[in-house]
Structure formats: C-alpha cells, structure tokens
Amino acid sequence: MTNRSALIRLLGGAAGLAVVGAFWVGLVLAPPDRLMGDVQRIMYVHVPAAWSGFLAFFVVFVSSIAYLARRDERFDHLAHAAAEVGVVFMALAIALGSIWGKPTWGVWWTWDPRLTSSAVLLAIYLGYLALRGVTDDPERRARWSAAVGIIGFLDVPIVYLSVLWWRTLHQPPSSPETIARPMLLALWSGVAAFTLLLAFFVAVRYRTARAEAELELLEVSHV
Amino acid sequence: MSDASGFMVAAYLLTAAVLVGYAVVLSLRARAAERRLAELREESQRTGIRAAPRELPQLEAVGGSRVQA
C-alpha cells in the first residue's frame, strides 16, 4: 500500500469516527429544542450537509480557474470529483430540509427563495456532470466544464444571501451567541465531521477520476 | 415516540444510508477502475501497445509552416 493510499484510509477512518461522534452528540448529548422538540436535531445534519455542498462547489470553482490558467488536467479531475461529491451533499441537504419542513412548516416543499435557489444550484451541478458526458475529447470536456464550474458557483452566494435579500419562510442564519452551548457543540461537531468526510470522498473520487482518464487513453490504444 | 420524533429518525437514517451508500459506491468504482487499469497495463506490456499520446506532435514542413498532426 502506498503512503497516499494509507493516508486516504486514515482520513476515511477519522471521518467515519467523527460522523458517529457527531451523531451521538446530536442525538444524545444535545437537549431537545424548547419549541421544536426532537425535530430540531435534524439541523445537526442538514446544516453540515449544506455546508459540505457549498465547500465542494467552492473547490470546483477554484479548480476550474486553476485548470483554465494552467491547463493541467489534474485540476479538471479535482473539479470533477468535488462536483460529484457536492451534488451528493447538496441533494442530502435539500432532502433533510424537506423532512424538517413537513412537521415545522406543514409542507414538504415550497417555492421559497432559499429552497428555489438551492434546487437551482443542485440542477447546475447535475448539468455540470451531464455536460462531461457530452464530448469524448478530454481537453474540450475540461474547458467546457471549467466554464460551468466558474459560472455555476455564482449561485452559492445567492443561496446563502437569499434569506437576507428576500422575505422567506426559511429562517436567516443563526448567531452562535443565541444558541445554547450543547446545541452549538452538536452543530460544530457535525460540520467538522462532514468536512472530513467531504475531504475523504473527494480524495477517493479524485483517484478514480485519474485512473479513469488513464483508462480512456489505454482503451483508445487497444481499440 | 411522537410523530415529530419519527421525522428526526427518518432524517438520521437517510443521512446514514446516503453517506454509507455513497462510500460503498465510491469504493466499488475505484476498485473496478484500478482492476481494469491493471489488466490493460499488463496487456500493454504483453503486446507492446502503448497509450496514445494526449497531445499530438506538431510537424514542421520543409517550407516552415506548422501543421497539427
């Protein structure tokens, strides 16, 4: 096993333990909310999932700029890996928000600015992944994807600021000063655990993307 | 357990299922790609066929004009 493989395994183990720990803090240590009761505990996974999605799309944004500047295919592979992982976390965040919305708002879904802009964000990165299948030319694929990866990121600040810009059903961001300590601990441990998991997923997906790129070349040679 | 707690349980189960499921899918895809890569590398060594170069060389004609091969 190479050093890098060992490091990725270590990261995976640490991320797994951190997620189990975060679940325990969120489900056992943190008290139920005075008004929402146990349903509020969904925030300890919903917020970290949304954060991880945003962070992954930021990696896509930076890697896309780096690809266009340097034309190094490793940046394209990193952007591809982060986009796929980001889609998983963003879809999870939306689904968890919907599960929280039903008992709290009385509906699974509403066309509120935060929810709508989040759905658009998910659609943008699903489109990014679909676009990668349109052409077999690796250089063209990387260039097109980088353009979408940069422009698509513009929706992230819109999602974040939507609750401040427009009158929405979704609550604005909470301030750490107004959250009870055990609840804040649950939130932060969730964010830390999901960030570790994001790093692990991107590292594994990046290696696979590199292997797939080499496979593409070898398979062309063997036709 | 109240109805509201049921939503919380559903949310945590969904989270665990998605994260574990995606980890398994990633692992299977990585193994499949590495296995196929090892097969093709072995075949390359046996047959002498090498991977096509990603960038084709530029050929310079006698007259000096460059042509992309």
Model description:
The complex is a heterodimer of chains A (223) and B (69). Chain A contains seven helices and no strands. Chain A has helices spanning 3-29, 43-70, 73-105, 113-131, 138-152, 155-165, 181-222. The longest helix of chain A is centred in the last third of the chain and has 42 residues, at 181-222. Chain B is mostly helical. In chain B, 65% of the residues lie in helices and 9% in strands. Chain B contains one helix and two strands; from the N terminus they run H-E-E. Chain B starts with a helix and ends with a strand.
Q: Nutshell version of this structure?
A:
Chain A is mainly alpha-helical. In chain A, 78% of the residues lie in helices and 0% in strands. Chain A has helices spanning 3-29, 43-70, 73-105, 113-131, 138-152, 155-165, 181-222.
The N- to C-terminal Cα distance of chain B equals: 71 Å
Structural class of chain A: mainly alpha
Query: What percentage of the residues of chain A does DSSP assign to strands (E)?
Result: under 5%
Number of helices in the DSSP assignment of chain A: 7
Total beta strand runs of chain B? 2
Mean pLDDT of chain B: 79
The helix-and-strand class of chain B reads mainly alpha
Query: Could you tell me the number of beta strands of chain A?
Result: 0
The main sheet of chain B orders its strands as 1-2
Helix coverage percent of chain A: over 70%
Radius of gyration of chain B: 26 Å
Most extensive interface between two protein chains, with residue counts? A-B, 40 and 33 residues
Order of helices and strands of chain A: HHHHHHH
> What string, H for helix and E for strand, traces the elements of chain B in order?
HEE
Q: What is the molecular shape of chain A?
A: globular
Shape of chain B: rod-shaped
**Oligomeric assembly:** heterodimer
Could you report the average pLDDT of chain A, rounded to the nearest whole number?
94
Q: How would a textbook summarize the main sheet of chain A?
A: none
Low-confidence stretches of chain B: none
Task: Catalogue the unreliable spans of chain A.
Answer: none
